[in-house]
UniProtKB/TrEMBL annotation:
InterPro entries: APOBEC/CMP_deaminase_Zn-bd (IPR016192), CMP_dCMP_dom (IPR002125), Cytidine_deaminase-like (IPR016193), MafB19-deam (IPR058535), tRNA_aden_deaminase (IPR028883). It catalyses: adenosine(34) in tRNA + H2O + H(+) = inosine(34) in tRNA + NH4(+). Zn(2+) binds at H52, C82, C85. Belongs to the cytidine and deoxycytidylate deaminase family. ADAT2 subfamily. Pfam families: MafB19-deam (PF14437). The active site is at E54 (proton donor). CDD domains: nucleoside_deaminase. It comes from Virgibacillus tibetensis. The gene is tadA. One of its GO terms (molecular function) is tRNA-specific adenosine-34 deaminase activity. This is tRNA-specific adenosine deaminase. HAMAP family: tRNA_aden_deaminase.
Length: 155
């Protein structure tokens, strides 16, 4: 129940991205039962590679708890983390990640590889997959369908 509640908050963040014509990916970080940070994809707006939802939320959480270590935190994100975000998650010592939709093209929490649970690192992340996965996936499907439709109209 709590996972779904917090994933709904991540979906709300993803909708903020969509409203700015960004790929609709959202994330929230929960500490002691409370959302302390959130982020949504801003790569097109900022034109910076690092503007992924997870990285924005991690930076905000670091400021909020005044530490780079997020050991007691759970990250909820609508799409399976990419290699860059998975690396940041491991480095930030986030305890648990919950994601919605799998990403067969770039997912590094089980789809292409699993950086989060790799025993070779000094920190592993507990992983929960597929929470509200259909709703999270539909956000992306609808966004890209609309984008392709707009591009066809401009040809």
């Amino acid at each position: 129940m709590l996972d779904e509640k917090f994933m709904q908050a991540a979906i709300a963040e993803a909708n903020k991205a969509r409203n700015q014509d960004e790929v609709p990916i959202g994330a929230v970080i929960v500490y002691k039962g409370e959302v302390i940070a959130s982020g949504y994809n801003l790569r097109e707006t900022s034109q910076t590679t690092l503007s992924h939802a997870e990285l924005i939320a991690i930076a905000e959480a670091n400021k909020k708890i005044k530490s780079w270590r997020l050991e007691e935190c759970t990250l909820y994100v609508t799409l399976e983390p990419c290699p860059m975000c998975a690396g940041a998650i491991v480095q930030s010592r986030i305890r648990r990640v919950v994601f919605g939709a799998a990403d067969p093209k770039a997912g590094c929490a089980g789809s292409l590889m699993n950086l989060l649970e790799d025993q070779r690192f000094n920190h592993q992340v507990e992983l929960t997959r597929g929470v509200l996965g259909e709703a999270c996936g539909q956000l992306l499907t609808d966004f890209f369908k609309e984008l392709r439709s707009r591009k066809k109209g401009n040809l």
